[in-house]
Specification:
Structural class of chain A: alpha+beta
Number of helices of chain A: 23
Radius of gyration of chain A: 36 Å
Largest sheet of chain A: 7 strands, mixed
Number of strands of chain B: 2
Distance between the termini of chain B: 14 Å
Shape of chain B: globular
Shape of chain A: elongated
Mean pLDDT of chain B: 86
Largest sheet of chain B: 2 strands, antiparallel
Strand content of chain A: 15-25%
Oligomer: heterodimer
Radius of gyration of chain B: 20 Å
Low-confidence stretches of chain B: none
Number of helices of chain B: 13
Distance between the termini of chain A: 121 Å
Largest interface: A-B, 43 and 52 residues
Strand content of chain B: under 5%
Chain lengths: 584, 364
């Protein structure tokens, strides 16, 4: 209505005023909108603008290195390259992956799958390919312009120069397991890797690096403009071990992939000079996600390469246990070194015939000769005379049946059976036959190689047993505990046993004569233990020089044959090496 | 025509407001196109200054001559600009469009000239004809005058500049005496037919219109600029992040920030304060311009003033609305603020015409 009455007759001034009003109303609306955006919604827009420009780059703190006694690296860090992508910057991940695939030598689908799997936050990077080659990294770096959001991240990659030779000793690392809560408790991030075994695990607290982050300002192309803030990653503490890398490698090559364990200890302070378990595995494969794809064979391997036989393998010790029996009989004063028993090749105990390993018999034997011949009948007699309680008592005193406290994870206790244990576990009474079996290291008895080593060390040091340890220094500061455990055993008992062990190696008929080595007198004891399988376990424990012992050793070969042959031969070789390298 | 010019009629405010707008623009262009290794005389801001200086000089030089002479120039200028619009289609494309004619280092944008020549022709036509006495078939002339350059500009393609001609035509039609009712019907029909326009658009133009409906539909593609522009403006707050302090600007998040999206930089670095000042100055130009149109008894001058004011104002409204995400992105520069020599010269020339009309209008 209004239009018709006034429309045609309006003056030009009135018309332009109306147009002007429409336009000014437009400006008014624009102003109101500005007010809304810049005042009322300012905070939200401000946050968006911050989010636009700020990224956080994860910086992994390098783990501490692990060195051998001479400073040779056993676990080191190498600069490695990851090909990652910032999800926010990559507007077409499909195309990016398509371009990356040939550069990385992978299929586009694999890359997309990895991208899809990750649950990283908006500002974190997603790793598309881990530990790529330097040339690949360069090729990608050159073509970043075509690859929006892609970046090459460098990170320290754990490396184990000795590979399988020190795998059980040094251990390896793996992605952090466990729930969010415990992760936060110890200040780990989701991406952190931790020690999963060996020294890597045992000394995690020292070795671990603290991951940091770099807060950066990026431009619209995702290029770094400047760093806004940095939480420096912290490198972990370096650890020096007591082991000798050369000896470690030498022993591993002697083991030649056969099942077994060899441990060498310096008697002066309990430093472990080498710690080998075989068969072994390559810890380098565990150190990256890429390598971890090829470790399935290790985990299911028939020879259980992952098992550290030195601390976790529990085996019947056989004749090396006769040391304990002798100490028990001496302690009970049932024998003296001069006491003689006759060995006809067998002994009847509780109605059963117990054989000596030499079926024709040894004849009259004193303690020294019995050790040298490893006469079973002598030790049946000595053991029965001493009684099970005395044997168990001496075993416990020597540290058997409980972990030795070596600084490696997961050490087992072994088993020293006694009547109480048998009643509970087997619901059977203890028979004299059990005592006889125990006397020669058979039956229910189980020792770990490290326990056997500590047993022989006690003999070698006249009962002043050092604490076995691997970690010598942390960041150059000595941390090893050099305390000595004193065993309350009369000196003449040690003398008697030592004389026997000397005869084992050095008498012409000694069962351990193959352990002899050029230029140094060795003492020790062989053991050939029934394993329940066709082949026996071969043991040799010994020390050298026999006159003033400096080094003790255990050689254990699972189903390896006869201790006096394979065990003693290998020990001889190792003693030879130790002499040549100035340890003896 | 040899009457004395009354310089008291010189509209200082109408002269100073565009200068103010320009000054806000020049600072913003400097910030938006800053490159650390550039010396000041190499900057786009300096180039823009030179254009402006030339334009201001032109304003003073043309003050003496009478705007009536433009009536004779209208048709020649119109056909000249049509020729340029055809010519530009054969020029090598820049940024995916044929919008510039290159001559040495100077690039001319014929569509800027075309807008002004269309207004001149329309003003001449509307001042010599009366709606009441015009034969109905001749009523098609003003529409045809707009349609030809409109289609040519659309072909470049430059949808925004083309669309600007429509409100200008409608404003002048209204002032001429074209019945309001019919005008509204025309606008209604235009809106109904606009989906047809959608069919002839290029893909990028379609996607720009679609993301206007929902910018987040394609946040890294067509919607990106709108989102970044809104973030820039909103995050500026009351007082802005300061000269060269805008992160959206300096870190390159905002595309086209020294041309069509320059208001994003004004909003981010100058905040509500600078943005409001800019809007206020445009409102002053609009108010003054329409006042001149209303107070000029000469119908040619009145129509001319109305067309020019509508052109400048509608450009500002569309550009601001578009950078704030209120209107679809159609590619319209913000007059005197966006970088571009042709636009600055043509806009200042338009302002000169407004000033001239006020000086020379016959006062009975």
């Amino acid at each position: 209505m209004a239009f018709r009455s006034t429309g045609p007759r309006l003056t030009a001034a009135e018309k332009t005023r109306r147009i002007s009003l429409v336009m000014l109303a437009g400006f008014g609306l624009l102003f109101l909108n500005l007010l809304r955006m810049q005042v009322f919604e300012w905070g939200a827009y401000r946050r968006l603008s911050e989010k636009n420009r700020i990224r956080v780059i994860y910086l992994e703190g390098a783990r501490g290195r692990i060195y051998d006694r001479a400073g040779k690296p056993l676990a080191d860090n190498r600069l490695s390259f990851n090909c990652s992508v910032m999800p926010r910057e990559s507007n077409d991940i499909d195309e990016t992956c398509g371009r990356l695939a040939p550069l990385l030598g992978e299929t586009k689908e694999t890359l997309l799958q990895r991208f899809g799997k990750s649950k990283s936050g908006n500002f974190n990077t997603v790793i598309l390919a881990e530990d790529i080659g330097r040339t690949q990294a360069m090729a990608i770096e050159e073509r970043l312009d075509e690859l929006p959001g892609v970046l090459i991240e460098t990170r320290p990659q754990r490396e184990y120069p000795l590979g399988p030779a020190a795998a059980h000793l040094v251990g390896y690392i793996g992605p952090l397991q466990g729930d969010e809560e415990s992760r936060e408790l110890y200040d780990y991030s989701r991406r952190d890797w931790v020690g999963a075994n060996g020294v890597e695990k045992m000394s995690e607290g020292f070795l671990r690096g603290r991951s940091g982050g770099l807060q950066i300002e990026v431009n619209s192309a995702g290029r770094i403009v400047k760093a806004l803030g940095i939480k420096e990653p912290e490198t972990g503490k370096d650890i020096q071990l007591t082991v000798d890398a050369a000896l470690q490698s030498h022993v591993q090559s002697l083991l030649h992939g056969e099942k077994g364990a060899v441990i060498v200890m310096d008697l002066k302070d309990g430093s472990i000079l080498s710690f080998n378990s075989s068969p072994s595995f390559d810890p380098n494969r565990f150190a990256s996600s890429k390598g971890r794809k090829s470790v399935a064979g290790y985990l299911t391997g028939a020879d259980a390469p992952m098992v550290d036989r030195g601390t976790r393998g529990q085996y019947p010790p056989g004749s090396i246990y006769k040391i304990v029996t002798a100490l028990a009989a001496l302690k009970r004063q049932k024998i003296t070194p001069e006491t003689q028993y006759n060995c006809p090749g067998f002994m009847v105990i509780g109605g059963n015939k117990f054989h000596c390993w030499k079926l024709s018999g040894h004849g009259e034997e004193d303690l020294t000769k019995a050790f040298a011949d490893s006469c079973d009948v002598y030790f049946y007699s000595a053991g029965l005379a001493a009684g099970v309680d005395a044997i168990v008592d001496r075993a416990k005193m020597l540290g058997l049946g409980r972990p030795t406290g070596l600084d490696l994870p997961g050490e087992r206790s072994g088993l020293v059976p006694d009547p109480e244990w048998k009643r509970r576990a087997k619901r059977l009474p203890w028979f004299d036959g059990d005592t006889a079996n125990l006397s020669i290291g058979q039956g229910f008895l189980q020792l770990t190689p490290i326990q056997a080593l500590m047993m022989i060390s006690a003999v070698a040091t006249n009962g002043e047993v050092p604490r076995p340890h691997l970690v010598e220094k942390v960041n150059g500061v000595k941390v090893s505990d050099n305390s000595v455990r004193h065993l309350d055993v009369p000196a003449e008992h040690w003398k008697a046993v030592q004389a026997g062990l000397d005869a084992v190696v050095n008498s012409p008929r000694g069962t351990g004569r193959l352990a002899k080595a050029e230029g140094v007198r060795i003492a020790g004891k062989t053991g050939t233990a029934q394993s329940g399988q066709s082949r026996t376990h071969a043991w040799f424990v010994g020390y050298a020089p026999a006159e003033r012992p400096k080094v003790a050793m255990v050689v254990f070969l699972e189903n390896g044959g006869t201790g006096g042959v394979v065990g003693a031969k290998m020990a001889s070789n190792v003693f030879e090496w130790l002499r040549l390298n100035g340890y003896l | 025509m040899n009457k004395k010019i009354n310089f008291r009629q010189f509209d200082k405010i109408l002269f100073l407001a565009p200068i103010g707008i320009f000054l806000i623009g020049i600072v913003t262009i400097y910030s938006a196109s800053f490159k650390s290794h550039q010396s000041i005389d190499e900057t786009l801001a300096m180039k823009q200054m030179i254009w402006m200086a030339a334009a201001v000089l032109g304003v003073f030089m043309t003050l003496k001559s009478d705007y009536f002479r433009l009536a004779d120039l209208a048709w020649p200028l119109y056909f000249f600009s049509l020729a340029l619009l055809v010519l530009v289609l054969f020029m090598p494309s820049r940024l995916g469009a044929h919008r510039w004619i290159g001559a040495a280092s100077v690039n001319l944008q014929p569509s800027e000239l075309a807008k002004l020549s269309v207004i001149l022709v329309l003003a001449r036509f509307f001042s010599s004809q009366r709606y009441e006495y015009l034969p109905r078939e001749k009523l098609l002339i003003p529409f045809a005058v707009v349609a030809v350059p409109f289609l040519l500009i659309l072909k470049e393609p430059d949808l925004g500049t083309g669309l600007l001609l429509i409100p200008v035509l409608f404003g002048m039609l209204y002032l001429w005496g074209f019945p309001t009712k019919k005008l509204l019907i025309l606008i209604g029909a235009g809106c109904l037919l606009s989906p047809l326009l959608f069919l002839v658009l290029k893909d990028y133009q379609r996607s720009r219109l679609l993301v206007f409906i929902n910018p987040n539909a394609d946040p890294l593609g067509a919607g990106y600029t709108i989102i970044q522009s809104k973030i820039a403006i909103g995050s500026g707050g009351l007082f802005g992040k300061g000269f060269m302090g805008g992160t959206q600007n300096t870190l390159n998040f905002l595309p086209e920030r020294h041309t069509d999206f320059i208001f994003g930089v004004v909003g981010e670095e100058g905040g509500l304060l600078a943005s409001t000042a800019l809007i206020f100055l445009f409102a002053v130009v609009a108010k003054k311009g329409y006042a001149i149109a209303g107070q000029t008894p000469d119908r040619f001058g009145s129509q001319l003033a109305c067309g020019i004011t509508t052109l400048i104002t509608i450009q500002a409204v569309i550009n601001l609305g578009m950078t704030m995400g209120l209107l679809p992105v159609v590619g319209v520069p913000l007059p005197l603020v966006s970088y571009g020599g042709t636009s600055v010269v043509v806009t200042m020339f338009s302002i000169a015409i407004l000033l001239n009309i006020k000086l020379h209008r016959p006062l009975f």
